[in-house]
Every structure is written in structure tokens, then in C-alpha cells.
Amino acid sequence: MRMSKALIPTLRDNPAEADTVSQQLLVRAGFIRKSAAGLYHYLPLGKRVLQKIETIVREEMDAFGCQELLMPIVQPAELWLETGRWNAYGAEMFKVTDRHERQFCLGPTHEEMITDLVRNEVNSYRQLPLRLYQIQNKYRDEKRPRFGLIRGREFVMKDMYSFDRDPEGLDQCYWDMYQAYTNIFNRCGLKFRPIEADGGAIGDSQTHEFTALADIGENTVVYCEHCGYAANIEIAPCPVPEAQSSVETALPMEKVYTPDSKTIEAVGNYLQVPAQKCIKTLFFQADDELICVLARGDHEVNDVKVQRVHPCLALELAEEEDVVKKVGCNFGSLGPVGLQGIKIYADLAVEQMVNLVCGANEEAYHYINVNPGRDFQVEGYYDLRMMQEGEACPKCGQKLDSARGIEVGQIFKLGTKYSETLGATYLDENGKTQVIHMGCYGVGVSRTMAATVEQNHDENGMIWPKSIAPYHVVVVPISAKDEKQMAIAEQIYTDLQKRGVEVMLDDRNERPGVKFKDADLIGYPLRITVGKKAVEEKIVEYKLRTAAENEIVAVDEVVEKAVSYIFSE
Ligand code: ATP
Ligand code: MG
């Protein structure tokens, strides 16, 4: 490709609204343009990167026996009504109505569609197992589209669905995909960790998230350098604290006046007790029900764990006015003592507390010397809090570290959740009807592109791994007007192309400084600069994007050197 003919609208400055490095650089280097919140154009360079990631994904899927197909993006509401997800999916679903008033959605995911297809086309054990995937735009009306391609409302996903006769077959596929995903993200040049994650409302379903490490990541990963344990903080089981009752005797409960003490910190200061002695009382709206969750004052409540013990479709912190209506007291003085008609769940640490402080459900009053079991009852004590860095690894007991990460892929055992509801069955060897065992496996293709940039850039621009760079090499003649220089540059350009290298020739009539800046910003792995010395001394400059310095290479050796660099591992 010739730069003079290409649509690569680079910008000198970062776009004002870009909130992450990847978004800034991808926009500035002319890879993407925003159309509306969470909706992007992929310009030619961006499209090339996307396509390279797709090719890697395809190769790895095909290597593990998966077959590519393509399903409609527009999906009939009836299918989603059958699984109960039409309403459960919530506001994230883009819904559309056709001219006959029939309802559809723009596919946020395709479990319903593929299960419907398979229930119609598969009926014998001889047709199983099946591994079917597609690479396609997905639509989710995200509450907060942000970070450019990382959280879009239209984005490219590879989604694979597996169909097996039994749990053993599913398990085999799951670990095949674990390997395939490891290969994919390694080949994309990402630093990532596969982490244990939340199986959602399906119970103890097995799942791993593939998480690219990056400070802007929305997920927190806790990991153990000692034994290799790694999990999303949402599911990491917290160590159970030791009982305090052996060292402290329970005292009689008392109500005390606590003016202007609406936070754990303020109450603690006022009563001169540490946060570990206070109870945090939170109210959640769990679908239509108000529930109460208790944690130790210095701990954070983990809503994923709450949702596991109190299964519901939507769980959110309750609005203050709803709590006032039910309990008769504002936030700041709430507590479990005397609470009627509300389910109370408490963290395991609360069970061990003695003589604690909690709100009295009366403005500006707290109780002291409250003792769980004696002064209030709960539905049960569960692990309901967030793991903290430095706590003990649940596998080996060593200290855990934590890091931020971006989920770029997820593998998930669905079991019979969809096949049972939608009736995807087969006849076994004995002619008996059996339910198909399913798994689903997603790669965020466009998100992977952005995550790669988050990890691979410097102050001058992006640094593409060779495997997914839009072009491998840029050839930069210092003066496009100098015919002799141009002739040498053209020769290198065509020779590289003949050898299968993807090359950009910067034949623009621009100053060298502008061309170098653009080359660094775009992040080609290799730049070959053809100047005066190419004509006079038959030498060119050879610069890797990752290297600080140029190398000097003979004109008639540069193609060979470039080819062996580009196609080396
Ligand atoms: P998240 O928790 O980040 O919202 P998810 O768990 O809902 O993601 P999945 O349903 O597992 O996403 O989708 C498979 C993959 O698609 C994810 O691992 C992620 O890489 C990608 N993905 C999901 N939502 C988006 C989005 N809004 N924009 C870009 N990529 C996305
Ligand atoms: Mg996911």
C-alpha cells in the first residue's frame, strides 16, 4: 500500500474525550473513528488488525475441530421468551419491532439461536459432538459504554458453542478451549491470566475468564505466585476469621446516642471503637424484594457472593427512600436488631464478633455490645465479602497479590441449562432420549485489539506485535521528490511484497519528521529509511519499533534481513 493513497487520518493531538491510552492512540493513528457512544468505524488500518486477530482465532478454533457458521444478528423474541431471557436480559438488550409489530432483538449473544438450530437439525448420538462458532458483531446497550473498543455497544465477538453427549465430552471440549484461548492470546502478544470466575445463577458452573493485565481493567484478579491460584476477586473464597468469643465475654446490649455519626468511621471515632468492632448494614434490592446484608466494618460486601446465596435476576444497592419506607430510618443508623420481615444474610466474620456496634434503626442512635445470635437472628452466615490483597490464598495459604485486568475471553460450561429449556435432545445408542450438554466460549475480538494497545505502547505511539500489526514494515524515503531515492525505496517495497511481507510505502511529499512521527504512532514493527546514503553508499537505516537505535544495513541485504525478522517466531 502507498501512504499517499491510503485513508489514514492521523491526528497531532489526543482526542479530548478519549479516556484510555488505547482509545487515544487508535483514534490518533487513524485506526478507528467514533460514530456515537460505543459505536466505532474501523478505518482500513483498524480493519486489518481486526482481521488478523480473527484469522488467529479461526486457525485455533479450526485446529480444535470447530466449524464456522454464521447466524442472523436479528433474533426473534419468541426464542428468548422460551428461555425467559427476553425480560431477564434487561436494558442491555437492543429490541426492534418489524412492520408487522413482531419483536426481535439485535443479538447480544447466541445461546438461544444456536440451541434452536441444533434442536432442529440434530437428533442422533451419531451427530455429536459438535463445535460451532461464528465471528460477528454483537449488540449490547451497555449502561456505560467507555474506553473505546473495550466497552462498546456494537463489538466483534467470536462465539463458540459446543454440543456433547455427556458431561465428560463437555469437559474435554472445555479444556480444549482453555488451550485454544491460551494459544490465541499468546499469539496476539498479550500478557494475560486465565482466572476462575463467577458461574452466575447457573449454580456451580465452571468458568474461566481470560484476563489481559492492565491498570485500566475493570476486573480485579487475585493471584498467588506460590501455587498459581488465580481468580476474579468476585469469587475468591475469603479465609474464615477466628472466633473472638474465647477472649471476650458478651456484655449486655445498650442503646447509645451517636450524633452526626453516619459512617462506620464516624461511629468508630465517636465511640472510640475500631471498624472491626462495627457492623456494616447494607440493604439490597433483589428483584422485588428488599434484603439486608451484614459485614464487618472494615470489610466490603461482594454482591456476586450475595447473589449466590440469594438467587435473583437483578441485585442492586437499595434506594434510601425504599429502606426508609420499610425500616423507618435513614441510612447511617441502620442495624439488624429488631428488624422485622426482611431476610438478613451475614458474612462469616460477623458470626465471630463479640460486643459489636450497629445502628439502632433510630436516627442518631446505635447499639453497643450487640452479640449475633443473642441480639439478632439471620437467615445464615456465608462468605459474602470481598477478598483483600495480602490475605491467605485459598489453595496454599500464602499471601495473595492482586492486579487489574480486562476480560478478553471467557469459557463456560452451560451443562443442560439451555438444552433442557429448549428441548435440544438426541437419541442414544439404545434409542433413549438424552439431553445435550453444552458449553459456550467467547472471545472479544475488538476488545482484544484495544487490550493489546493498552499493553504495547510508548510515549510515541503503538507498538504492534508482528502477529497482528496492520503492516509489518514501513519503507520511508526521506525525499519523495528524489527520483534515485524513490527508485531504491520502490525496489525494496516490491521485493518485500514478493516475499509475502506486508509493506506500506510512505511516498507522501512530507517532511521526514512527519513521516517518522506517523510511523511510530501507527506502530509498524519495522521501519526502513531510504535517504541520501542509499544512493551514495548503498546503505539504508533499519529500525525496529522496539529498539532504541537504528542499524545500518546494505541495500541489497535489507530485504533478506527484514524477511527473516518478520517471519521468525
Ligand atoms: P463484561 O463482564 O466485560 O461486560 P461479559 O462477561 O458480559 O463482559 P461475555 O458475555 O462473556 O461478556 O462475552 C464474551 C467476550 O466478549 C468477553 O469476554 C469480552 O471480551 C467481549 N465483550 C463483552 N462485552 C463487550 C463490550 N461491551 N465491548 C467489547 N467487548 C465485549
Ligand atoms: Mg464474560
Instruction: Pick out the low-confidence regions.
Output: none
First-residue to last-residue Cα separation = 25 Å
Report the C-alpha radius of gyration, rounded: 29 Å
Approximate helicity band: 25-40%
Q: What is the general shape? A: globular
Report the strand count.
31
Percent of residues in beta strands = 25-35%
Explain this structure to me?
It is a single chain. By secondary structure, the chain is of the alpha+beta class. It contains 16 helices and 31 strands. Strands 3, 7, 8, 9, 10, 11, 12, 21 and 24 form a nine-stranded mixed β-sheet that branches. Strands 16-14-15-17-20 form a five-stranded mixed β-sheet. β14 (279-286) and β15 (289-296) form a beta hairpin. α2 crosses α12 (445-455). The longest helix is centred in the first third of the chain and has 21 residues, at 167-187. The protein is globular. The protein starts with 20 loop residues before the first helix and ends with a helix. The chain binds adenosine-5'-triphosphate and magnesium ion. Magnesium ion binds at residues 407, 410.
